[in-house]
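Worked Example 4.2. Consider the chain below.
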Amino acid sequence: MRIVFRADASTQMGSGHIMRCMCLAEALQKHQAQIWFIVRHITDYLEQILRDKGFQVILLPDQNSQTDDLFHSEWLGVSQIDDALATCKVLQHLEKPVDWLIIDHYAIDHRWERILKPLVDKVLVIDDLADRIHDCDILLDQNQYLNLSSRYKNKVHEDTQLLLGSRYALLRNEFRVARQQKKQEFNPQVRKILIFFGGMDKENYTGKLLNSLEHDQLSQQLKFVVVIGAQHPDLNHIKKLCEQFDYELHINSTKMAELMLQADIAIGAGGSSSWERCCVGLPSLAFAIARNQIQLTEDAALQGLIDSPNIDWNNPESIRQIVMGFIHNPLARQRIFHTAFNAVDGKGTQRVLRALGVRSLSIRRATFEDSQSLWQWRNHDSIRLVSRNTDLIALDSHEQWFRNILQSLDRVMLIAEHNHLPVGVIRFDFEETCAEISIYCVPNEQGAGFSIDMLQEAEKFLFQHYSNITEIKAVVLADNWASHHLFLNAGYQRNSTTYLKKLVRHS
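Applying the procedure from the previous section yields the following structure tokens:
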């Protein structure tokens, strides 16, 4: 697969567009995709990160031309026509066709996209604003707006696939790992505070916050962890302040998930970092520090994902009162902890990959070495309560049952794996030309978008290994809505709580 990204970064627009594209690019790279980044504006630091990760970076030349009528047109620096034509030249020099062109830029709309579409197979647009028309195959907006369902009405084609909401948040795998390490119990006491206002923070919100605090008092009770970029406008002052009060300072940190996992609360910008904090259940004070973050932050606060009170950044006393009020309000922090943790599961990147057509599952036959894991999964509440037999299974009974399955000619047990790790279980019970299927995702992998891929791979397995099977049957409990949805989407015909699908073999 060959993927081209078009995004920029600067002090004015921040680094968020490049960072979330890089997250998706890394995930694609693991599936042997070739990645190009076409950029016109980028910091030396970010360009080097992209190159170090093995991505090819192509810089568009600076040029003087008029900009367009979009609110953020000046971010592009040239007209969309000029930028599109320059991008076309780059694509025409690539030896093979591009499978996906992925655009993350507030200054690009349908006029740019229509010029590029003939040169690529498909187009994905990443957007937050819903303030312009797009011509694309998929539109991704990872933010949890209140008006998600109507947000892009009349702004995309009717057949454009919409990936909307925080379940599609593009988070690096480190956040998913950190989430699994997170203790589920809420800690009412605040000991460590993480401060991060983005990679640029051109208005120096970090400095405004730190300058408002009574450090002599707080440094004895609290541990502050401050994260800034190397180009921060108040870098030297923040360095001195952190040294004076023994605060932990990180410049261009590459371990944000770890820092969030260790913190009790966070204070920062209300952009895409909000979903990182939600993923690890970190209660946060989040503030809109750019125009495009205002609606996002307000809606997230109304849904209880963050706290975002009105603040006067020119009034140190106002800042101090808001921070101390959050620290001393464990009930509010507890509500945010649970709401945020349940809203963002860290599997958004995987869902986007699936929408791009990336199939990353493999199917293998189960062996007796899988017995212990299968027993634990089967007894997990999420699996047991949607099974026909909801009783807990004893280990010895399970092992005897599993031995019988492995030796049977009328049954087969399969394990689905993603990146060599188990994500699901499929069992077929054969009766003449019909195979009854039992399928589930292993705990902690539910909702990651693996189910439909597992089902499709299982069907392929039947085609390859059991030529006499002409029909698959699935019996689903009445209230197991996830399974009903799965089989309906996969083309199965419903008969009460039973689903049937004919396997058509073409000669």
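The CA atoms of residues 99 and 107 lie 23 Å apart. Residues 450-465 form the longest helix (16 residues). Compare this with Example 4.1 before moving on.
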